[in-house]
């Protein structure tokens, strides 16, 4: 198939977003002009759709909605800005820049995301350009952090389990760069690059995506076994590093994962990516490019809910995809190699890497970096960044690694950690250390219930139950989201809660501890009292009846609470 024949075979009707993208002249639209409009803090919907490709969403503070409505004021419009770095690795200077812009232009907090990016909330329209400029001056970018393109490429950030992390991270950076949009729109609008092309750009300038980009977002993650912290089976395209005796020999390729669904619509479901074969490292870019192009050409452009790659594969069959991929590559993947995952969480505290440097993984509750009374996390990290000569690594579980610390600097950094009481989570239960919650209210326009702001207090109550049952140190993966879009990858947790309405959640059980099995709905639309009522006896029974090294997710299946789910097609069964 020719890259220019973009809507084929999707000559079927397409959604309004497709028209907006097509008309936008490679993501320009009227963004440059609407940003100048001082009458409103908002931008028109068409430009908002395009803005996502530049890394930002228009939002409004939902806590203020009613009050402003009563006062007949427009909603408190503000922008979320997502800053990405492949594998989540940034320098101390870049950390300090994020800290500075968060104070100067955003709400004074930094949010570390589930895909190893940064988010700023509360940036006003008038400050967007300055913020994006400062981000770029520090050599980070917001381009393609959101939108119908390849998103931040995830990569296991921990160097202590094998010697190949640096190499794998380089591949994450290479594939990320290769799949960046090539349109100069971003540089013209935000960075005042002179408009080089007066006439419309040609398709050759966007050879991978073409003028309408992808039907939907696309996600890539690289795991380094035995850690599956990137939840490789949740990715549209996952790579599993195969290493032997500390040497990277290649990757197994997994395709068609995804988490999003809609309540009450069984045609939407979370799905696990499936392993289709093995490639050498040098083949990775080619495989990623061709996979993206297949999705570009065959993904559903009519119904956005059905436009993710997982549906393209499930509708047409895995065999069809593999044949199409082989045809476009001109060569065949080898048979997948054996691998083993044993967890998808983070490992906290100090560890020595195989390069002799030190790494400290901090527990950051739900990824929110801020100063609170009694816990000056943001200030402490700023002080570390001022003296640190290594790097910072955002983990796929919303935590932070202070990485590549030399033995000389370790004492100094340890002293700051102590002075600010920065925690590796040891005072908390293992359940909390394995928890994630998405942003949800008050910024997320799609949230049906609280998540980030509620999860800590639910965990306080669950920790009492764990203490009673003697399970405080038992690692159990728990996740919460404010809606079924699945931003904290809830369908892979051993226990999860998905928002249904204010204070109400659907409860799911039985995900695999290493992110290799989906969970299943156990109770619908329940509040906190019922959650505790359900979990107390279950956890007590687990404490008494579990088999040796049996994880909670496995136990609830064996004990008959829920059925095992190995494919998204059985998720609603
Ligand atoms: Fe997400 C939309 C936050 C990871 C699936 N996600 C959103 C938006 C932008 C809401 C919106 O469209 O208006 C949220 C902004 C909230 C806010 O106020 O900040 C949002 N998603 C997040 C983050 C910040 C959650 C977090 O707590 O860290 C994560 C940012 C990742 C990043 O840095 O790039 C985030 N989102 C995910 C993940 C997890 C992942 O990628 O590993 C998923 C599930 C995996 C997947 O894509 O299948 C995810 N987000 C969605 C979806 C559902 C997509 C679908 O297939 O239907 C939406 C809604 C949409 O796209 O229409 C969404
Ligand atoms: Fe918002 Fe839903 Fe994503 Fe949570 S899961 S951040 S509520 S879109």
From TrEMBL:
CC terms in the record's Gene Ontology section: sulfite reductase complex (NADPH)
Main function: Component of the sulfite reductase complex that catalyzes the 6-electron reduction of sulfite to sulfide. This is one of several activities required for the biosynthesis of L-cysteine from sulfate.
What is the species listed in this Swiss-Prot or TrEMBL entry? Answer: Paenibacillus abyssi
EC no. given is 1.8.1.2
| Cross-referenced InterPro entries | CysI, NiRdtase/SiRdtase_haem-b_fer, Nit/Sulf_reduc_fer-like_dom_sf, NO2/SO3_Rdtase_4Fe4S_dom, NO2/SO3_Rdtase_4Fe4S_prot, NO2/SO3_Rdtase_4Fe4S_sf, NO2/SO3_Rdtase_FeS/sirohaem_BS
Pfam name, any one: NIR_SIR
Q: In which pathway does it act?
A: Sulfur metabolism; hydrogen sulfide biosynthesis; hydrogen sulfide from sulfite (NADPH route): step 1/1
Q: Where is the Nitrite/Sulfite reductase ferredoxin-like domain?
A: 75-137, 355-419
Q: What family does this belong to?
A: Belongs to the nitrite and sulfite reductase 4Fe-4S domain family.
Name-wise, this protein is Sulfite reductase [NADPH] hemoprotein beta-component
A GO molecular function held by the record:
heme binding
Domain Nitrite/sulphite reductase 4Fe-4S residue range list = 171-333
Q: Which UniProt keywords apply?
A: 4Fe-4S, Amino-acid biosynthesis, Cysteine biosynthesis, Heme, Iron, Iron-sulfur, Metal-binding, NADP, Oxidoreductase
